[in-house]
Design goal:
The structure holds 2 protein chains of 2 kinds.
Chain A lengths: L3 E4 L2 E4 L5 E7 L12 E6 L6 E5 L3 E2 L7 E6 L2 E6 L8 E7 L6 E2 L3 E5 L1
Parallel strand pairs in A: 2-11
Antiparallel strand pairs in A: 1-3, 3-8, 4-5, 4-9, 5-6, 7-8, 9-10, 9-11
Chain B lengths: L2 E5 L2 E3 L5 E8 L8 E6 L5 E7 L6 E3 L7 E6 L4 E6 L8 E8 L6 E4 L3 E5 L2
Parallel strand pairs in B: 2-11
Antiparallel strand pairs in B: 1-3, 3-8, 4-5, 4-9, 5-6, 7-8, 9-10, 9-11
The chains are: A mainly beta, B mainly beta.
Chain lengths: 112, 119
């Protein structure tokens, strides 16, 4: 199985600060069609996960442009510019290039 | 508005069977692949499997393939997860998810349903 390693496990931030979360995969996530199926999700406290970014860098519908995703092959980053209170929760990366699909362990974003 | 509403969870004894349902609305259910994903009490996310839009193909996590079965009824816009011979490690919140049409991600999630396996 493809192992997804997220760092850091937790982040303590102040409102307005910018943060980055890393996600590294044990295999390249480039599929035979040339696309990279690496996605980011946010689970706010007490809520179900919500799509943030799909295929590395595409923002989901309604997701503010404070969020951005970059990366390629095995190394990916989620950046949040100017963190707001609604951004708090657990961020997961997920890959759907390979079977079985797998998730990172999550990065918990908390208020400082 | 896309909505996915799971039901059928609860407390179940080891070795028993359980069937979860997920009713979809707000989109043409028969156009989309669907998946089940579970989240353990420790918050680990695990993909269970997928089903093709017409129900003709399924794909499962190898560790669950022999005990879990995904099916769908497009006439009822409903997705199912049949769980058999459940174990304590199946204790989790189970989410019904829609797969993005072109993106292949998990673009919408239900509210989740809790399954607790305990004697």
């Amino acid at each position: 199985d493809v192992v997804m390693t997220q760092t850091p496990p937790s982040l303590s931030v102040a409102i307005g600060q910018s943060v980055s979360i890393s996600c590294k995969s044990s295999q390249s996530l480039v599929y035979s069609d040339g696309k990279t199926y690496l996605h980011w999700l946010l689970q706010s406290p007490g809520r179900s996960p919500k799509r943030l970014i799909y295929q590395v860098s595409n923002l989901g519908s309604g997701v503010p442009d404070r969020f951005s995703g970059t990366g390629s092959q095995k190394d990916f980053t989620l950046k949040i510019s100017r963190v707001e209170a609604e951004d708090l929760g657990v961020y997961y990366c997920a890959q759907t290039t390979h079977f079985p699909n797998t998730f990172g362990a999550g990065t918990k974003l908390e208020l400082k | 508005e896309v909505q996915l509403v799971e039901s059928g969870g609860g407390l179940v004894q080891p070795g028993a069977s359980l069937k979860l349902s997920c009713v979809a609305s707000g989109f043409t259910f028969s156009d989309y692949w669907m998946s089940w994903v579970r989240q353990t009490p420790g918050k680990t996310m695990e993909w269970i499997g997928d089903i093709k839009y017409d129900g003709s193909y399924t794909n499962y996590a190898p560790s669950l393939k022999n005990r879990f079965t995904i099916s769908r009824d497009n006439a009822k816009s409903t997705l199912y997860l049949q769980m058999s011979n459940v174990r304590s490690e199946d204790t989790a919140t189970y989410y019904c998810t829609r797969r993005g049409y072109y993106s292949a991600d998990f673009d919408y999630w239900g509210q989740g349903v809790m399954v607790t396996v305990s004697s």
